[in-house]
Design a protein that fits this description.
Blueprint (H helix, E strand, L loop, with lengths): L1 H43 L13 H23 L8 H18 L7 H11 E9 L4 E4 L2 E2 L6 E6 L1 E8 L6 E7 L4 E7 L5
Parallel strand pairs: 1-7
Antiparallel strand pairs: 1-4, 2-3, 2-5, 5-6
Helix pairs in contact: 1-3, 2-3, 2-4, 3-4
């Protein structure tokens, strides 16, 4: 009888703990993907916290990166509140990662302050939707190729962005789009076929 009770107890623990473990694994995976996105963004910038090799060890830099990541995660709700529901959670995370990259470029050695970072991220980014008729045009924003052809959308810095659309067999189309903080801006052009 005691063995049956022990087995039931073991089964109950297993039934109760597996879903919790699974949720924790999902959260850990999402967190790791999020951190990976931010770290990849930071490493692509070529930025270092300090340009002198002797001033910081790799461990100190890694520790600072972990601290920054914790601040970014804590700022998530504040940044999210500045963007309406038309912005996905992924859009907001892209804003956070890009804002972190830019913030670190401007302030390489300052501790990352949660409130200052959240305000900076919310005030400096908006969304840009680029559309064309016909679809499938290459997108160039401020002389930099954008990922994917039209119709596409992505987050970018606020201000006037120069947009060029290129598609084989069509004349290029260009113009300016004014990206505003926390809003989607639509840039749309009809491409004219070459005769």
């Amino acid at each position: 009888m005691r063995r049956v009770g022990t087995n039931i107890y073991f089964v109950m623990i297993t039934v109760l703990c597996i879903p919790a473990w699974s949720q924790n694994q999902q959260r850990a995976t999402a967190s790791a993907e999020y951190m990976s996105l931010c770290m990849a963004s930071f490493s692509r910038s070529g930025n270092k916290y300090d340009t002198t090799e002797t001033s910081r060890t790799a461990d100190a830099t890694a520790q600072r990166g972990r601290y920054d990541f914790a601040v970014i995660q804590s700022a998530d709700a504040k940044v999210r509140s500045k963007f309406d529901a038309s912005f996905s959670d992924t859009d907001v995370r892209v804003v956070e990662c890009r804002a972190w990259q830019e913030y670190r470029r401007q302030h390489p050695n300052e501790p990352l302050d949660l409130d200052r970072f959240a305000a900076y991220a919310a005030a400096n980014y908006g969304g840009l939707k680029v559309r064309s008729t016909p679809e499938g045009a290459a997108i160039i924003i401020d002389n930099t190729p954008w990922e994917g052809p039209t119709d596409a959308q992505n987050m970018c810095s606020v201000g006037t962005r120069h947009v060029t659309l290129k598609k084989e067999g069509y004349w290029d189309e260009s113009g300016d789009a004014i990206v505003k903080e926390g809003e989607w801006t639509v840039f749309e052009r009809t491409l004219k076929a070459k005769q």
